[in-house]
Amino acid sequence: MAVTTNARGLFITLEGPDGSGKSSLLPRLAARLAPGGCEIVTTREPGSTPLGERIRSLLLDTEPRIDHTGRADALLFAAARAQHVEEVISPALARGAVVLCDRYADSSLAYQGVGSGVPMDQLREVQRFATGGLLPDLTILLDLPVEVGLSRKSDEITRFEAFQDVAYHERVRAAFLSFAAAEPGRYVIVDASGDRDAVLEASFAAIARVADRLPCLAGLVRAD
Ligand code: TYD
After folding, report:
1. Could you tell which of 22, 73, 83, 107 is best to mutate to test the pocket of ligand 1, judged by most ligand atoms within 8 Å of the CB?
2. What string of H, E and C letters represents the secondary structure of the chain?
3. pLDDT, mean of residues 70-97
4. Is residue 176 lining ligand 1, measured as CB closer than 6 Å?
5. Of the residues 12, 104, 121, 170, which has the fewest C-beta atoms closer than 10 A?
6. Higher pLDDT, 222 or 50
7. Statement: the pTM of the whole predicted model exceeds 0.90
8. Are strands 10-15 and 98-102 parallel, antiparallel or unpaired?
9. CB 68 within 8 A of CB 78
10. Please, what is the end-to-end C-alpha distance for the chain in angstroms?
């Protein structure tokens, strides 16, 4: 796989602690961008391919309860990610699409790296191997206090919500904030504790920063 650049489309990832509302934002953000005329592809990790959905169950199901080391988790997420990049994300970018992806490599760095203590330099290498070096053009970090996120009802309670303590989730939140501080050119932080419409508009405004990369987005942002 020789994917290292994203020459044609635009690759936007949504990141954040559990319960930050990424999954419900994704289709609404796609609808907000669609009138510009771009092809919008929404996708999520782990999953979005037949192999990735199988791995998703291994990673997230609470039953049967099976022990995973942080390294084993890192490799399972990375395997799902490798398949996702090659089967879904790269072809969409090659067509010139806007790819809106719910979680990507930064989630592994935050959860398996800072949350579970997998060494960061090795974990970054694993991400490079899995993705062929494909990086997002923009990452929207939906930030909110851990207790607020964990108290929001989600359709699916994952292993991470069921079996990790609040301190783990605090480390994950702090990790995302530190990544955003380290890469201000790629990251935009959106306050996810506000109402849904405010979060949608703040996320749309964040995309304006990279909209000049695609004519179908540039027109939309100018018209807004
Ligand atoms: P999901 O139900 O998609 O949660 P959310 O809606 O909050 O995104 O479950 C994904 C879970 O997997 C979430 O707890 C974060 C975790 N995760 C990792 O630990 N590492 C990763 O690389 C990814 C993609 C997710």
Report:
1. 107
2. CCCCCCCCCEEEEEECCCCCCHHHHHHHHHHHHHHHCCCEEEEECCCCCHHHHHHHHHHHCCCCCCCCCHHHHHHHHHHHHHHHHHHHHHHHHHCCCEEEEECCHHHHHHHHHHHCCCCHHHHHHHHHHHHCCCCCCEEEEEECCHHHHHHCCCCCCCHHHHHCCHHHHHHHHHHHHHHHHHCCCCEEEEECCCCHHHHHHHHHHHHHCCHHHCHHHHHHHHHC
3. 98
4. no
5. 121
6. 50
7. yes
8. parallel
9. no
10. 39
Ligand 1: centre distance to CA 214 (Å): 29
Q: What is the pLDDT of residues 19-51, one digit of tens each?
A: 999 999 999 999 999 999 999 999 999 999 999
Residue 62 beta carbon below 6 angstroms from any ligand 1 atom? no
pLDDT digits (tens, 9 = 90+) for 129-159: 999 999 999 999 999 999 999 988 677 789 9
**What's the residue count for the chain?**
224
* Cα–Cα distance list, 162 to 12, 60, 103, 157, 158 (Å): 28, 10, 19, 7, 6
CA pair distance 141, 103, nearest whole angstrom: 10
